[in-house]
Amino acid sequence: MKINGQSYRTIWFENNVVKIIDQTKLPHQFIIKDLKTVKDSINAIKTMEVRGAPLIGATAAYGLVLSINEKNDLSFLKQSSEELINSRPTAINLKWAVDRMMKKLSGVNNKDIFNIALKEAQAIAEEDVEFCKNIGLNGLKIIEEIANKKKDTVNILTHCNAGWLATIDWGTATSPIYHAHQKGVKVHVWVDETRPRNQGANLTSYELNEEGIPNTIIADNTGGILMQRGEVDMCIVGTDRTLSNGDVCNKIGTYLKALAAKDNNVPFYVALPSSTIDWNIKDHKDIPIEERNSEELSYVEGLDKNNKLQKILIYPHKSKVMNLAFDVTPAKYVTALITEKGVCEASEQGLEGLFK
Ligand code: MRU
């Protein structure tokens, strides 16, 4: 998608270096950063210079390419793969991408391994673009149905950033919105700010602005009253891990939005590529929920009146702070899952019907 009228992807490989858009600097600075080593990739994932389930999966895949480039040695590669998987715990895409790479590289000789690794990492990225595009085409039909009934602008609420910045291109939750906009369907997006890191305000609103899509940032607690007032026609969110029974683990606060949606008969959709499905864990209590540094809550960063980036403390410095990054929305609150293969019920039957 576009930034300043120019098309970008979130990650690409050029001259033996992985290029990323540093998302910790958006929306105030647009910086393309070089990742030269596997340690750089691990650090980019941990510090959230790259974030969003599909993008951290692709970054891990390219991280293994950098690892081979640094030292063409099996034990270094194995160590790199473990460190990449452990760099963030909740999104299943990390393990999915690393496992796929390691399977592809198993038994490959030292002479060919770099080229095979690069080709596979690129295939993972290309496949994600295709999946996200198809998620968009499948979700477009739902938006069009609402637009045809309503004969007016469709108001869509989204949480966090499941936009193109969270993937390689298109996004998951935003892909149906981009397709609708490109087809001339009138849409307006309510963007949850998404405390504490404000991925909604800083990234989703930013990317929608760049594509010319009307949107309004709201504080995280505002969605409920908007639904009661009939000002939300549908919710679409992304996911970091979807269980085979249709339970959805996504950015903290998603669950509360789903409850409000249920109470107000607002359809609640979850958009995902199949790389986000965890076929193994059966009980959502077994999903590792990331707990991040408390400073992400107690400090905020932004531009001061002199246009200088500043980080300031907003809480009492003695207060204890807890920063859980994800929650789980049980399948019963999910109207349907929008995937690259079609739209299905959030259930074992629904997912197996499409993918097994
Ligand atoms: O902590 P983040 O910013 O990586 O969390 C991102 C989300 O929760 C997204 O909704 C999810 O990864 C889906 S991305 C298409």
Task: State the main characteristics.
Rossmann fold, 2 domains, 7-stranded mixed beta sheet, 4-stranded mixed beta sheet, 11 helices, 18 strands, 20% strand, binds 5-S-methyl-1-O-phosphono-5-thio-D-ribulose
General description of the model:
- By secondary structure, the protein is α/β, with parallel strands linked by helices.
- It has 2 domains: 2-127, translation initiation factor eif-2b, domain 1 (Four Helix Bundle (Hemerythrin (Met), subunit A), Up-down Bundle), CATH 1.20.120; 138-354, Rossmann fold (3-Layer(aba) Sandwich).
- The chain has helices at residues 38-46, 53-70, 74-85, 93-105, 110-150, 175-182, 199-210, 223-228, 254-263, 295-298, 348-355; strands at 2-3, 6-7, 11-14, 17-21, 32-35, 154-158, 187-192, 215-218, 234-237, 241-243, 248-251, 268-271, 277-278, 299-303, 309-313, 326-329, 336-339, 342-344.
- The strands form 5 sheets. Strands 8-7-6-9-12-17-18 form a 7-stranded mixed β-sheet, with helices on both faces. Strands 13-10-11-16 form a 4-stranded mixed β-sheet, covered by helices on one side.
- The two termini are 32 Å apart.
- The model has no long low-confidence stretch (mean pLDDT 98).
- Bound molecules: 5-S-methyl-1-O-phosphono-5-thio-D-ribulose.
- The site of 5-S-methyl-1-O-phosphono-5-thio-D-ribulose has 17 residues, from helix 2 and strand 11.
